[in-house]
Automatic annotation (TrEMBL):
Stretch forming the signal peptide: 1-19
Entry-linked SUPFAM superfamilies: E set domains
Protein name per the record: NPC intracellular cholesterol transporter 2 homolog a-like
Keyword Secreted: yes
Similarity comment text for this entry: Belongs to the NPC2 family.
Cellular localisation: Secreted
Gene Ontology cellular-component terms listed: extracellular region
Cited CDD domains: Npc2_like
Keyword list, A-Z: Disulfide bond, Secreted, Signal
Domain MD-2-related lipid-recognition residues, every copy: 22-147
The keyword Mitochondrion is annotated on this UniProt entry: no
Length: 150
């Protein structure tokens, strides 16, 4: 009886440890409350196939009023941040972002965007650092997402 219970507990712990662990990397003036990615979030790494688009949806609240929101994305490779340019970094002027500025203190707010994974990107493991910044460059939300470009 006890070995069966122990095995079930062990399997549960292993399955929870495999879930995607998204880290807060320094949100200053906001708090993210939910993150959805267009990858299998039950795995420990978000797989990013080349020549595809990866989507992010982020729910957050604000600690102060904000007049502009900008997305800044980097791939952290061997502790070196490499920019992932976005065509639609200015969230307030991007119709599909879900945001209409100015944003008032509180919320909640819902942000969406898509990152192209280009064929030219090397196939390797990377931490994706996705930041939403205000007009003063302060982080509304900062996320570190373990990923692998495939």
């Amino acid at each position: 009886m006890y070995p069966t219970v122990a095995a079930i507990i062990l399997l549960c712990c292993l399955s929870f440890s495999r879930a995607l662990d998204i880290e807060n990397c320094g949100s200053e003036i906001g708090t993210y409350t939910n993150v959805d990615l267009s990858c299998d979030m039950s795995k420990s790494v978000c797989e990013l196939p080349v020549d595809t688009n990866v989507s992010i949806s982020l729910d957050f609240t604000l600690e102060k009023d904000v007049s502009q929101v900008f997305a800044v994305v980097h791939g952290i490779i061997m502790d070196i941040p490499v920019p992932f340019p976005l065509n639609n970094a200015a969230a307030c002027t991007t119709p599909d972002s879900g945001l209409t500025c100015p944003l008032s203190k509180g919320g909640p707010y819902h942000y969406t965007n898509t990152l192209p994974v280009k064929k030219s990107y090397p196939k390797l493991s990377v931490k994706v650092k996705w930041e939403l910044r205000d007009e003063d460059g302060k982080d509304i939300a900062c996320l570190l997402i373990p990923a692998k470009i495939k």
